[in-house]
Amino acid sequence: HITFNSLWLWELGALIEQRLGGLLLVALVVLCGGGSNVAQAWYSGPSLFGGMSGVVYALLGFCWVYNALLPDGRLWVPRPIIAFMLVWLVFCMVAPTELLGIGSIANAAHLAGLLLGCLLAAPLALWRRKRVARPPEVHDAPEVHDAHGDRNEED
């Protein structure tokens, strides 16, 4: 479990850090880590838990929605990876994981992380898309005239 989360944090975190900056990644980890763990505490009551699964799902959701709204390839994650992670999320929510020997799953943290990542990506991607779509300002070069006041066609 720790290895799985660590690998996804490495992959998705590096993607976000390299393309959008380390400060944004730190903000996502702190906000989504806190939010997903609070959601799990609210759902399951006081218990000993904590982890990065909610953050992994948040980073996945962030990349997924960001790329869907601004498909510039910056945060592209292969669709089979997204599908696998979403199927796993649903499986863990509906399957009796404790009876299957998988153990208790922090489903609220996973779902809250995914939703937080999606919600945080949307305004950023839409803002950047608006900036990219805006045509650059056109600065016309001043007309060049010769000594007689006639426009010089060579320039």
Describe this structure in words.
The protein is mostly helical. Helix content is about 65%, strand content about 0%. The longest helix has 27 residues, at about 105-135. The protein starts with a helix and ends in a 22-residue tail after the last helix.
Quaternary assembly? single chain
Number of DSSP strands?
A: 0
Mean pLDDT: 84
* Structural class designation: mainly alpha
Question: What series of H and E elements makes up the topology?
Answer: HHHHH
Report, as a whole number of angstroms, the end-to-end distance: 67 Å
Radius of gyration computed on alpha carbons: 24 Å
Please, how many helices? 5
Mind summarizing the main beta sheet?
A: none
Q: What fraction, in percent, of the residue positions are helical?
A: 55-70%
* Residue runs with pLDDT of under 50 for 5 or more positions: none
Sheet-strand content, in percent, reads under 5%
Outline: elongated
List keywords for this structure.
155 residues, mainly alpha, 5 helices, elongated
